[in-house]
Amino acid sequence: MQFDIFTLFPEIFPSYFDSSILKRARQRGLLHVDVHNIRDWAVDRHHVTDDLPYGGGGGMIMKVEPVFSAVESILGTSPSCPVVMLTPQGRVFTQKVAEELVQYSHLALICGRYEGVDERIREHLVTDEISIGDFVLTGGELPALMLVDALTRLLPGVLGDEESAQQDSFMAGLLDHPHYTRPEQLSHQMVPEVLLGGDHEAIRKWRLKQSLGRTWLRRPDLLIMETLSDEQKALLEQFIAEFRQEVK
Ligand code: 4FV
After folding, report:
1. CA distance 38 to 119
2. pLDDT below 70 — which residues of the chain?
C-alpha cells in the first residue's frame, strides 16, 4: 500500500515509520510512505502557508495554493487515489472504516494545521474527510499516523500469525477478551483455570463470553443484540447473571 502524506511538519513521521511493525512492513515492500512538505510549494519569498481568516476571528488559516500545488505536482491534476483530509469535521475513524480504506492500494493524506484549512481545499481537492475523534489537536499529523498504522496492520503479510488481526478488538464488533501470560500466579492472582486446561473449545467460549461481557459493561453502544448468535446471547446472559451475583 502507498501513502502520500502532505504536511507542514515532515520531521514528525520518520521515527514512527522506522520502528517495529511499520518498519518491517516497509522492509517487506508491503508499505510505501512518501512524506511531502507543503511549505516546499509556498513559492512566495517567505514561503508563507497560512494567513488571516476572512471575516476576522482568532487564529490563522492554511492557505489553498501551497496545498493545491503540492498535491497536483505529486498526484497530478486529477488524483487517481482518494485524497483524505484529517479533520474533526470528518466521519469518525473506526475499525470498519479502516477495513474499507485498506481496500485502496494508494491513499493521499492531508494534515491540517492552524485554526483550519481554506474551504476550497475541501471543495476542489479532498474526496474524503476522516476524524479520529471528537477532540481538537494541534495538527492532522497524529491522525494521519493512526490511519497509516491501523490500515498497515490489516495488510496481508504485515502481521505474523502470532500477531494476527483476526482476533482483534472490534473485528467481531466486540471489545477484546482479557489476555494472560506467564507467570501463572502473581501473589494471589491466578490465571483463569480454563486458559491452562488446553480445552480449546472451552477457551473459545470463555474468551467470547468475556468479550461480550466486557462490551456489555463498557461499550453497550457496540452491542447490537439482533446481530448476536444464539450462542453469543446465551454466553452474554450467563455473564450478566454471574456479574449480578458478584455485585449483590
Ligand atoms: C483532528 C481530529 C484534529 C484541528 C485543527 C488540526 C486539528 C488543526 N484531525 N481528527 N480530531 N485536527 O483535531 O483529525 O488544524
Report:
1. 17
2. 161-171
Question: Which domain range does residue 95 map to?
Answer: 2-154
Residue nearest to atom 9 of ligand 1 (CA): 87
Quick check: is 164 in a domain? Answer: no
CATH code of the domain in which 195 resides: 1.10.1270.20
7 lines ligand 1 (CB under 6 A): no
pLDDT at residue 165, as a whole number: 60
Ligand 1 centroid distance, CA of 236 (Å): 37
Three-point CA angle 148, 152, 155, nearest 5°: 150
CA distances from 119 to 8, 107, 109, 131, 146 (A): 18, 21, 16, 16, 24
79 lines ligand 1 (CB under 6 A): no
| pTM for the structure as a whole | 0.92
The verdict on whether 115 is a catalytic residue reads yes
Q: What is the pLDDT of residue 193?
A: 95
Report how far ligand 1's centroid is from the alpha carbon of 102 (Å).
Answer: 22
Catalytic residue among 4, 66, 113, 153: 153
Pick the closest to residue 4 from 104, 88, 74 (CA basis): 74
Please tell me whether residues 6 and 125 are part of one structural domain.
yes
Q: Are residues 125 and 9 part of one domain?
A: yes
Distance CA 36, CA 231 (A): 50
Looking at the structure of the chain, the number of domains it has is 2
Residue 170, pLDDT score? 67
- Distance between CA atoms of residues 114 and 51, nearest Å: 10
> Which residues neighbour 114 within 8 Å (Cβ) at sequence distance 6 or greater?
50, 59, 60, 61, 62
Pick the catalytic residue: 99, 128, 168, 176? 168
Among residues 133, 209, 203, which one has the least CA distance to residue 172?
209
Determine the pLDDT at residue 36: 98
